[in-house]
Write a structure and sequence with these properties.
The complex is a heterodimer. Chain A is α/β, with parallel strands linked by helices. Among the domains of chain A are: about 200 residues, FAD/NAD(P)-binding domain; about 120 residues, no CATH class. Chain A has 15 helices and 16 strands. The longest helix of chain A is centred in the first third of the chain and has 25 residues. Chain B folds into 2 domains: about 300 residues, Probable tRNA modification gtpase trme, domain 1 (Gyrase A, domain 2), CATH 3.30.1360; about 80 residues, Aminomethyltransferase beta-barrel domains (Elongation Factor Tu (Ef-tu), domain 3). In chain B, strand 6 and strand 7 form a beta hairpin. In chain B, helix 3 crosses helix 8. In chain B, about 45% of the residues are buried. The interface between A and B is medium-sized, with 22 and 27 residues. The structure holds flavin-adenine dinucleotide. Flavin-adenine dinucleotide binds next to helix 1 and helix 14 of chain A.
Chain lengths: ~525, ~400
């Protein structure tokens, strides 16, 4: 029986991030991945011959340059499209609104007052998000054995804010749990931008812009996303291959097609894992970089855990609500406002439209007019045949438990999104070479993520920070000696940013030292 | 459902205390009319004379209604494994037909309750305790093939305690001559479906009888009828409390605060802090709180200990402050009485673990004498529990008094 210092379960980008860092620090690391390829929910697959299309995530939201450097990703071939990714807001019966560089630059042609309100709002949100970033990029403070010693940590944070000015602290505390709709209304920004912000705040989370706390999602985006989302050259698969190659270069061993069935616990201590094939591999440290519900519920099992934490894990809301529509197109469609580069298209014309699309999801129904974001590949993108393109669409508010069932739902959703796209790019339907619809249950099955959730589990205020994934395990430690966790379900959450992998690796290194 | 249609059930709010199956019989005997609330039931504090009730426990026989005790039926192929997950002690060592005094903790190793676990056969148990725990039990059971059901209301219970109890039972047609402490026997069918066990809360010779609710009244009458010549007396909690303190038994939410009821985060207690350290079986692969208890032992983070005190003088020290060298506050008396049997002033107290050795401890008692407090600073010594040890408690066959 071969033995390793650390076994990482799952070669999603978070697992690979942690494996890389641990191997760099001299650990013998083995990564076991169920699929045949690295990257989990952030890779591409061949939808039609010659078309490599982002399967789920289609942009790197929040992978910052520091992380890229720490992992040696550039050396392993990670490149980004040189031009910034423009956002084109599709508007019914009107010209689109174009943000040439997402939130990062002024909007050309926007009138002075609107422009100022927009810049003011972004200014204060970004300022607050920058302070949150310090929390997001580090391990949440922990309740000690018996008393909750948060006080000191909380004080430090408040001081940081206070140094920034009393009114900022007050302003932050006032805004942090507000509905996104109220924030944008107060700021009196252009209603098209209000629609975009509402969408960005709520994509991947089961809230509407009028739900209390919905502004949190926007803080998260701003805090993790330095500038804005980026599209890697060669597509998501290329980015994930870079993560893989960098890991290998650092010395980690990867095995694909090797799902883990069980984490072996003996007398409260981890001793290794057993694969689906029945092979037992020993290690004193196991880092489970998959959904925490899968880690605790299936791989560890409640019989070796205390009732309190089992209860908390079972109450994690894992049902996703974003559906992926992937379209292989024979020719690159034209959208007004989109140039030749990769382009982000967003259909979320107003706050009302985003809220209205959210409402039916509460009752297990699909929206009549779904809001979505899509990535249109750049002209000349090498991951599709010459002259062709892909359109990768994430549709919001498509509940896991669809009442009418997803068999009908897939067809209906594809139809309503195609009808919408046809409005903006007449003839696009005819250009479709191949298409797939990945609803939350499909994502669950294909990517081994219970619920198929963007964040592996709801990213709402009751499940953030020291409560993510559950109280007592937010420091990436399971209540079992030697078992660590990371991934989208842990602090700070999902999106392709690698932060939980980074934080967890730091904790492991700190613990074995 | 309208208020009217709901009928009798909707009238419950007028008198929100449940009635035990023995309520009417107790009420008929009660001259003191002194009821208290026991887990939602009206229970007698004193029936007619607290002192005579106490002396019935120690000299003849006493009948105490334990129906309000919370009871769970636990059964199924995984029942033993489930209980091993839940509780501190090793349930595989509990043989069928026996009773185990045990406790259970939350994730932080803080005691949720203590109680008695009855094992009827391989896969059938009853857990008796002070507080209600159904959500906790169900959540612990979720991965086990086990059925957990609260049966407090369905099962009536009577404690028959005192030196003449065995003889009384023999007269009543229940042979307990071979029954050892913590052993269970089936009741004769004529008395209903039920069990008798040699258990109790008095430190005396004694038994507890459990029957289905509908047989309760007849059982009481039957015992009562055979009790006349054996000095049988119905008793309330006041008398029982004196006996249990003498026996050194603790009561949840009197001598320690249970983890789920505590409002203040530093009030719950580890088993080691309330004298239950002997229950903790670290050889079990896992149980709720094991990790936290192990860690606390490693880091020596035990803050308090529960001790027995003998205090000079005869003034009961209930809820008095415990001092070191008359100056430093180091604890509190959770239960203090003048013990009629030990003829000593005794108490249970929670004391700062650093003063466990007991040197130079004092207790400050405020004795109210005709509207004037006398502040008494009395010397206290830490002594062994129980405060009294009665050979008849364990003697088998039991004495024939
Ligand atoms: C529809 C949708 C669109 C999204 N779009 C974006 C986007 O555009 N930009 C963005 O930044 N984020 C996006 N996200 C979020 C992002 O995809 C995830 O948050 C992120 O990929 C999570 O990464 P991870 O490494 O934590 O987990 P995962 O990517 O889920 O990786 C976990 C890995 O573990 C493996 N695994 C699971 N169980 C086992 C087992 N028992 N044994 C071995 N291996 C196992 C899985 O196969 C998988 O490879 C989107 C999410 C969804 C659902």
């Amino acid at each position: 029986m071969k033995s390793f210092d650390t076994i990482v379960i799952g070669a999603g980008h978070n697992g690979m991030t942690a494996a890389n860092l641990l191997a760099r620090r001299g650990q013998k690391v083995l990564v076991l991945e169920a699929s045949q390829v690295p990257g989990g929910m952030a890779t591409s697959s061949e939808l039609a011959p010659g078309y490599s299309i982002p399967s789920i995530a289609h942009s790197l939201n929040g992978l910052d340059d520091k992380t890229i450097a720490a992992l040696g990703l550039a050396g392993a071939g990670l490149r980004f499209e040189p031009d910034p990714l423009p956002t084109v807001c599709l508007l019914p019966a009107a010209d689109p609104l174009v943000l040439p560089n997402g939130y990062a630059a002024p909007i050309p042609g926007m009138a002075g007052g609107d422009q100022k309100n927009w810049q003011d709002l972004l200014g204060s949100l970004s300022f607050q998000a920058a302070i949150l970033k310090q929390f997001i990029a580090s391990t949440p403070p922990q309740p000690r054995e018996r008393s909750f010693q948060l006080k000191a940590e909380g004080l430090k944070a408040a001081l940081k804010m206070k140094r920034a000015g009393k009114s900022e602290l007050r302003e932050f505390l006032r805004m942090v749990l507000m509905p996104a709709a109220d924030v944008v209304q107060e700021a009196e920004i252009d209603r098209r931008l209000a629609g975009l912000l509402s969408f960005d705040a709520t994509l991947g989370i089961a809230v509407g812009p009028r739900s209390p706390t919905s502004i949190l999602g926007l803080y998260y985006r701003l805090a993790t996303q330095t500038g804005q989302p980026r599209v890697p050259v060669g597509g998501m698969a290329a980015a994930m291959n870079a993560f893989h190659q960098a890991g290998v270069a650092a010395g980690a061993v990867f095995r694909f097609g090797t799902p883990v069935r069980r984490i072996v616990v003996d007398g409260g201590k981890v001793t290794g894992v057993v694969t689906e094939g029945g092979e037992e591999i020993g290690a004193a440290t196991v880092l489970s970089a998959i959904s925490p519900v899968a880690t605790f519920g299936s791989l560890v099992g409640s019989r070796v855990m205390d009732t309190g934490i089992v209860r908390d894990v079972r109450s994690i809301r894992t049902k996703g609500n974003v559906t992926k529509l992937n379209l292989a197109l024979g020719l690159r469609p034209t959208f007004k406002g989109a140039g030749n580069g990769a382009t982000r298209l967003v259909f979320a014309p107003s706050v009302d439209d985003v809220e209205r699309a959210f409402n039916p999801s509460k009752y297990g129904e699909l929206p009549e007019a779904p809001c979505f974001e899509a990535i249109l590949s750049a002209a000349g993108d090498q991951s599709v045949p010459a002259g062709a393109a892909y359109l990768s669409v994430s549709v919001q508010n498509t509940p896991y438990d669809l009442r009418s069932g997803w068999k009908k739902g897939r067809v209906a959703l594809m139809k309503s999104v195609m009808t919408r796209l046809e409005q903006f790019s007449p003839g696009i339907a005819k250009a479709v070479v191949a298409a797939e619809t990945l609803a939350p249950p499909d994502i669950e099955e294909r990517y081994h993520v219970p619920g198929g959730h963007w964040h592996h589990g709801e990213w709402q205020v009751d499940r953030l920070f020291f409560n993510r994934p559950v109280f007592g395990a937010a420091n990436y430690r399971a209540p079992i000696e030697g078992l660590f966790i990371c991934g989208a379900g842990t602090h700070p959450g999902g999106g392709v940013n690698g932060l939980s992998g980074l934080n967890a690796a730091r904790e492991i290194l700190g613990a074995v030292r | 459902m309208s208020m009217k249609a709901a009928g009798a059930a909707s009238e419950f709010w007028r008198n929100p205390q449940w009635k035990s199956p023995f309520h009417d019989r107790i009420e008929a005997l009660m001259t003191e009319r002194h009821w208290y609330d026991w887990a939602g039931y009206a229970a007698p504090e004193i029936i007619d004379d607290a002192e005579l009730e106490y002396f019935a426990i120690r000299s003849t026989a006493a009948l105490f209604d334990i129906s309000p005790m919370v009871k769970y039926s636990i059964s199924g192929p995984d029942a033993e494994q489930f209980l091993n997950h839940l509780t501190l002690r090793d349930v595989s060592k509990l043989k069928a037909g026996r009773v185990q005094y045990t406790a259970w903790c939350d994730d932080d190793g803080q005691v949720l309750d203590d109680g008695t676990l009855f094992r009827f056969d391989d896969s059938t148990f009853r857990l008796c305790c002070q507080e209600r725990h159904l959500p906790w039990l169900m959540d612990t059971a979720f991965d086990y093939d086990v059925t957990v059901r609260e049966e407090t209301d369905e099962i009536a219970g009577l404690a028959l305690q005192g030196p003449t109890s065995a003889a009384l039972l023999r007269d009543a047609g229940i042979d307990v001559s071979g029954l050892k402490p913590f052993q269970i026997a089936v009741l004769p069918k004529s008395l209903g479906r039920g069990h008798i066990s040699r258990t109790g809360f008095t430190g005396d010779l004694g038994y507890e009888l459990f029957v289905d609710r509908k047989s309760a009244g007849a059982l009481w009458d039957h015992l009562w009828q055979h009790g006349t010549l054996r000095g049988l007396r119905a008793i309330g909690y006041h008398a029982l409390n004196i006996a249990r303190i003498e026996a050194g038994f603790i009561v949840a939410n009197a001598d320690f605060v249970t983890s789920e009821t505590a409002l203040r985060s530093n009030r719950p207690r580890l088993p080691d802090e309330i004298g239950l350290d002997w229950m903790v079986d670290l050889t079990k692969p896992h149980f709720n709180g094991k990790r936290a208890i192990e860690r606390s032992r490693q880091s020596k983070s035990r803050r308090e200990v529960l001790v027995g005190l003998e205090i000079e003088g005869n003034e009961p020290a209930q809820h008095a402050i415990v001092y070191h060298a008359k100056r430093r506050e180091v604890g509190v008396v959770t239960a203090g009485i003048w013990s009629p049997t030990a003829k000593r002033n005794i108490a249970l107290a929670c004391v700062d673990a650093r003063y466990e050795t007991g040197d130079n401890l004092w207790v400050e008692i405020y004795a109210l004498r005709e509207l004037r407090y006398h502040k008494l600073m009395k010397r206290a010594r830490i002594v062994e529990r129980p405060f009294i040890k009665l050979p008849r408690r364990t003697l088998t066959p039991p004495g024939d008094f």
